[in-house]
Structures are given as C-alpha cells and as structure tokens.
Design a protein that fits this description.
heterodimer; A: mainly alpha; two-stranded antiparallel ribbon; globular
C-alpha cells in the first residue's frame, strides 16, 4: 500500500463493519454462521463500492479468489468427512474408542487420554466438530458428568485444531501468509508446546480440580513433550497435514504404555465391574481393520513427500491465475499466478480418497462392505457438507473482498497504532475472535491472517511468530465457539444448556490465550524470533 | 427441514453455476456482461443461502 491517506475517515471506520456485522449477528442476534457469513459478504461488497473505490471486475476477481481458496479447503473437508462417515458406519470409531477405554482404568488418566490425546487424534483426522461428537458421549458413557464431559472434549481437542482436519487450517494460514511451509510448520509446532501443556492441565483441572492438576501433572508434562515433539517431527518431515494425528496417536500410545507400567509397578486397583463393562463394549471387528484407513492415510501422506513422487507431481495441479487489481482509490494488489494451487499428488484430498478406496476394498474382500455403504456414507457427507461449503465460501469471499480493496490493511494500521509494542499479547485474541464467530480456525485464518501479518510487518516483529500465534489463538478458541458447543450439547441431550458449558470453558480459554500472548511477546521482543 | 435442505441445494448448485460464468466473464473473455451475469447468479446463491440458514 503506497499511501493510506487516500481513504476518508468514514472509510477507516467502515472497514471494520463487515467483521462487526458477522460478530454481532452471530453473538447478539444468534444467527447461524451461514446467514451471518452472507450478511458479512454483502456488507463488505457494499462498503467496498461506497468507500474503497471497488469495481465490478474487482468484486468478480475477489469472488473467484474466495472460491479458489475455499475449494482448496473444501476438498479436504468433503473427503475427510466422507472417510469419517464411512469408518463410523463400519463401527470403526466405536471400536477404536472402546479399545482405548478398556486399556485405561484410572479415571483421571481416562479423561486425559480420551479427552486430550484421543480427541486430538480425531481432530487430526476429521475435525469440524467430530471430536466433540465422538469424545463427549464416550466420556459420559464411562461415567462423567455431561457438562464436565463436554467441557473436557472442547478444551481437550483445542490444541489439535491448527494442524487438524488434515491440515486444512494450517494450509489456509500458509496460503494467506505465503510463508514457506518448511519455515512456518516447525515454528508453529515449537510455539504449540505450551498450549498443549496448558490444555492438558486444564483438562486435569476440569476433571478433579487442583488435586487433579497435581496428580495428573507428571503424565501431562511427559505426554505434552511427546505430542509436541511428534508435531514438530511431522512438520520437519514436511507432513503438517498429519501433525495432529501423529501427535494424538503418540500421546495415546505412550499413555497406554505408562498406564500398564503403573498398573504393574504400583498395583493400581481395577474393579471387576469396569473390566466387565469394557469387555462387553468390545466389538468383534479387528482393531487393525478399523484403523486401516488412517494407517493408509499416514502412509500415503509420508509417501507423497518423497522427492521422486513430489517431482512427478510438480506439473499436476489445478489453479487459476489472478490478474493485478487497482481500485479507484489506487489500492493495488499484485498479479498472482497459480493462486491456491491444488497439487494432485500431494494435496490431502486425493490422498484421503485413495485411503478410503483401499480401506473399502479391504472391507469388501472381507465381505464386510459393499458399494451401497460407500454411496450411503457419501449421501450423508453431501447433506453435512453443503451448509459448510456455503458458509466457507461466503466468509472466504468476504475476507477476499476486504483484502483486495484495502479494508484489512486499514484495520491493521488502526490496531498497530493503538496497541504498539503490546500487539503480540493481543494477537491470539484476534485469532480467537475469528474462530469464536465462525466456529472454524480455517475461517479465522482467512479473515485475520493477512491482517496479523501486515501488523507484524509494520511493527518490525517476526511475521512467522505472529502468523503462528494467529492460528494458535484460533485453535484454542474452538473450546468456546458456539458452533462447536452446540455439537456437544446436542449429542448428549443437554440442548439449551450451551451457556453452562461455555461458562466452564471460557475461563480456561482466556487464561491459555493470555499466556500464549505473553509467549508471543517474549518470542517477538526478547528472543527476536522470525 | 426439507425446505431448508432444498434451499441449501439450490444455493449450492447456483454457486457452482456462477463459478465458470464469472471466470469466463472476468478472466478469460473479459466481458462485463458475462461478469454481471456470473455475479448475479452468485448473488442468487447468497440469497438462498441466507434464507435457508
């Protein structure tokens, strides 16, 4: 941006209006994200014409940019939900859950393993509220109070959201900031050690207060290091799409080992009743057949990173070229070639589809599935994903209109002027605001990643740190997003009590966000991180 | 519920239709009339989406 003085005072004030409309309609008028997104998009287009010198061509190009960006993410959402629906239909999710439950007998360990590690694993694979839908009833089944169960699932899965959903939020962040994945991924993983630890401590506290924190601390610290290191390793291997999955899996596996060791060394008491319940809930399907789609997913994700395969797929991609745009007020965006490129051999969607196909063939050969199963699970996916698609497109298009016409730049200037050197402390709260209003870390990254990046650039602090903090804030705020809370309350039959669940999660979320903000400030000004 | 699903379906398919029309209008052919048609179809999609929510 050459000179922001070309914008009138009313333009500066109105630049925030689309975000305010999105926020207030969802929180005060209790509109759904789908309707609020449409309202936000319409307001952003009107404001862009009235005060930002937009043209028909700019609106059309912003819309196409929004579609391209949304398509990248929606391909992951559709295929991931289809894979989940198919595996759930085959009873695999229940089988995996009951197997884990039968292996852990200590109630606090159960809360940590299921609510913190396993929920992270599910978030890594599916996301989009699925961890809440799976974990909350599971915790209730093993005897937990429904409000505690919902709160544990919400806080427990929040560490895995940024790398979750097979990397959809992460890839959006990377696209919006244009930071090299080999730099962004590992840096984000390092910054995630603290939120992982804090969410584990929060789960212990929700479960049994300060006594729980003290009793659970050794396990929480060790598992945090293991999960954090697993995420870091996955990003170093350039496989951020499986970072949460691998971390959740490592956490579950290690907890299983420590739980058995503890039983052997200290003779932990296991009641006959618990053992009987666990045996009764075991299903007959092989656990390995249940986990097969996810074994395949991890395998193919790793294979896609082999240089030879990467080289083959270099020219196999889908993308559009976006020409340069200049508004009537002189705000310019550069020409972008291959915008939001979808690489056919390394994008998560084809990998998920391949895993699904092979898992289906394996079930078919075991006479455990047929074509109808695949069709039935797709029909369910279609119904589930259409509202998500419409919401994502409208919010992403709104963000693109704001970015292309200079609204986000103006907002970042205002934030920079008001917060100054304390900006890193507020940075995670901006990410959190995005997730709170949209229920999606991906949407939050679309709305605010560019803004955070520009602010960090203006302040002269590390853009990688601030971009990472944006998605970490968004990730943690999944625990207070009304859209996610609704999933939990609906599934365990406490509809209308969303406020009570939110009251439980808000203090933990705010404390974690504040600590993350302080971490960001230390990284930015003391460690002078990139 | 069925009404909501129908509105979502209409919104979804009009959105799909608007993409190639807008693309050809704004990028390939650089035709303002086609761009207007594409954006009009997209507006119909937004309208149905907000009605269904």
């Amino acid at each position: 941006m050459e000179n922001f003085e070309q914008f009138s005072l009313i333009a500066k004030i109105s630049s925030i209006i689309p975000i305010l409309i999105l926020t207030t309609t969802m929180t005060m008028l209790k509109w759904s994200a789908q309707r609020a997104g449409s309202a936000g998009l319409i307001s952003s287009i009107l404001i862009s014409f009235l005060f930002f010198g937009s043209t028909l061509e700019i609106t059309a190009l912003s819309f196409l940019k929004g579609i391209s960006l949304a398509l990248f993410v929606l391909c992951i959402i559709w295929t991931a939900v289809w894979l989940y629906n198919y595996t759930e239909q085959k009873g695999s999710i229940t089988n995996i859950s009951t197997t884990i439950t039968s292996l852990i007998t200590n109630p606090l360990h159960q809360a940590l393993i299921i609510g913190w590690c396993f929920s992270g694993l599910i978030q890594g694979i599916a996301g989009f509220g699925v961890p809440i839908a799976v974990i909350t009833p599971l915790l209730v089944i093993i005897g937990m109070n429904p409000f505690k169960a919902a709160a544990i699932a919400l806080i427990g899965h929040s560490w895995a959201v940024a790398f979750g959903s097979l990397g959809s939020s992460y890839y959006t962040l990377q696209l919006m900031t244009n930071i090299n994945s080999e730099i962004l991924g590992p840096h984000l993983a390092i910054l995630f050690f603290l939120p992982i630890l804090l969410s584990g401590i929060a789960v212990s506290h929700i479960h049994s207060g300060f006594k729980g924190v003290v009793n659970g601390l050794p396990l929480v610290v060790i598992i945090s290091i293991i999960m954090g290191s697993s995420q870091y390793l996955a990003t170093i291997l350039n496989s951020p799409q499986i970072a949460s999955t691998v971390a959740g899996l490592a956490g579950c596996l290690f907890a299983w080992i420590i739980s058995n060791r503890t039983k052997i060394l200290f003779g932990f008491f296991v009641t006959k009743k618990q053992t009987k319940t666990n045996l009764n809930t075991q299903t007959k399907t092989s656990i390995h057949l249940s986990v097969l789609p996810y074994y395949l997913l991890i395998l193919f994700s790793l294979l896609s990173q082999i240089p030879f395969i990467k080289e083959i797929g270099t020219n196999l991609f889908f993308a559009i070229d976006i020409p340069e745009t200049i508004t009537n007020l002189g705000f310019k965006t550069e020409e972008i070639q291959n915008f939001a490129k979808i690489k056919l051999l390394s994008h998560p969607a084809p990998i998920i589809l391949l895993s699904l196909s092979l898992a289906w063939f394996a079930n078919l050969s075991n006479k455990n599935s047929n074509l109808h199963d695949l069709q039935k699970s797709f029909n369910k996916t279609y119904s589930q994903c259409i509202p998500t698609t419409l919401t994502t497109v409208s919010i992403v298009a709104m963000a693109m209109v704001m970015t292309t016409t200079g609204m986000t730049t103006l907002i970042s200037i205002v934030i920079t002027n008001y917060t100054g050197n304390t900006f890193p402390i507020f940075s995670p709260f901006i990410g959190a605001l995005g997730t709170f209003i949209s229920g999606s870390n991906t949407s939050s990254n679309v709305m605010f990643a560019a803004l955070q990046l520009e602010t960090a650039t203006k302040l002269g602090i590390g853009i990688v740190t601030i971009s990472s903090i944006q998605t970490i804030g968004g990730s943690i705020a999944s625990s207070i997003a009304p859209a996610k809370i609704l999933v939990g309350t609906a599934i365990i039959g406490i509809n209308g009590k969303e406020g009570e669940v939110m009251k439980k999660t808000i203090p933990y979320c705010l404390i974690i966000l504040l600590i993350i903000g302080l971490q960001a400030w230390i990284f930015s000004y003391i460690l002078k991180a990139i | 519920m069925k009404n909501k699903e129908s509105l979502n379906n209409i919104s979804f398919w009009t959105l799909i239709l608007s993409i190639p029309v807008t693309y050809f209008g704004a990028i390939s052919l650089e035709s303002q009339i086609i761009t207007i048609i594409g954006l009009t179809i997209a507006s119909i999609s937004i309208l149905f989406s907000s009605l269904s929510a």
